[in-house]
Amino acid sequence: MDFLTLFGIYVAVVLTCIALVCKYSGHQQTPLGLLLDKITGIVSPWIPQCLQSICYRTMHRLFHQRNNFFLYLHLLLEVVVYGEFSYEVFGFCLDMGTSSISLCIPYILLAMKSYLFYLCCSRDPGTLTKANHTAELKVYQYDEKLFQQGVKCSTCQLVKPARSKHCRVCNRCVQRFDHHCVWVNNCIGAQNTRYFLLYLLSVCAMAGNIAVLTADMLLQAVLRTGLLHAHYIDEQGEQQPAGPLFIIQHLFLTFPKIVFMLGFLVFVFFLLAGYSMFHMYLALINQTSNEWFKGKGHNCQHCHPYSAHNCRTSYNPFRGFYHRGILKNLGEIFWPLCPVQKKEN
Asked: Which residue intervals define the domain Palmitoyltransferase DHHC in the entry (predicted)?
């Protein structure tokens, strides 16, 4: 099995994983989950109890408690990519005439991304406390569908404001809760959603910029070596023109680390670009991830398909209860709503 075939299998597996994540995102039961349950049921009787306990505690620690593992993994991947870019691609690009300004852009984006990453990790997402609870109850109205008035959080023992949710990982209620992000080890809520959106966009820009510079370097290498007009001798001893597959395999053998880095960057770019578009869409319609997942399959509570009664309001399930227009929705992201304080006479 040659190098190109291995990479083709790698790309197919990655694309399949992305497709499965997109298709079954938010589902309680997924094919992978069911398969893991069956495998666990078959294998568990043969695994010592102490090893099962260690695996359970490890998984619980990684995905159900706050920890820095994914922060370190994030930084490790970043160091590997920038190390390879700085060590090999940067020098090749300089030799091929790429401007110094273009080569400095990835490092400027890295500085911007690092600052936004720090804000996502360190800023409070909008934690509900006894001190601010009464005021936060007045920020949003209850839609009486996803958020009902008077419901109390069983852990915090506080009445839940509309659009809030208790995060089991952080063990706190968060106003306008979106989701808990393991990559920043923090909840995404009313007070840090703007930083999270900008962080996603900066990572996409960073990955896309390095990918373009790397692809341009490989293209220049092909053009300068004359591979487009080259020929090779096949297994039957006949002369064949160097087609795209031959050129790609030649690049694999000549620049293996650079080509794999390019493949990784393209994968990260498209994955995060799709994720960023999803969150931008939610921002434009004033929804959170939590509301989007909870709202799947929900119809307007006032409309009944088997009766003549229909909702007289302009209810739109794709916009949701809190949609106030695109500009106001975006303004709410970047300038979170605060409770109106009544003036005392």
From this structure: 149-295
Active site residue 50: no
Q: How far apart are CA 125 and CA 288, in angstroms?
A: 13
Backbone angles phi, psi at 174, to 5 degrees: -125, 130
**Per DSSP, what are the bridge partners of residue 173?**
166
- The chain-wide mean pLDDT, for the chain, equals 82
All residues at 6 or more sequence positions from 290 whose CB lies less than 8 Å from its CB, including other chains: 165, 177, 178, 179
User: What's at 84, amino acid-wise?
Assistant: E
H or E, element range at 187: strand 186-188
Residue of 150, 142, 144 whose CA lies nearest to 302: 144
Interval 272-286: pLDDT, tens:
998 999 999 999 999
Question: How far apart (Å, rounded) are the C-alpha atoms in residues 186 and 123?
Answer: 9
Among residues 93, 120, 173, 181, the one annotated as catalytic is 181
Number of helical H runs and strand E runs in the chain: 12, 6
User: In this structure, are strands 239-241 and 231-233 parallel, antiparallel, or unpaired?
Assistant: antiparallel
- The residue that leads in pLDDT, 36 or 80, is 80
Q: In the Cβ-directed half-sphere of 311, how many Cα atoms lie within 13 Å?
A: 12
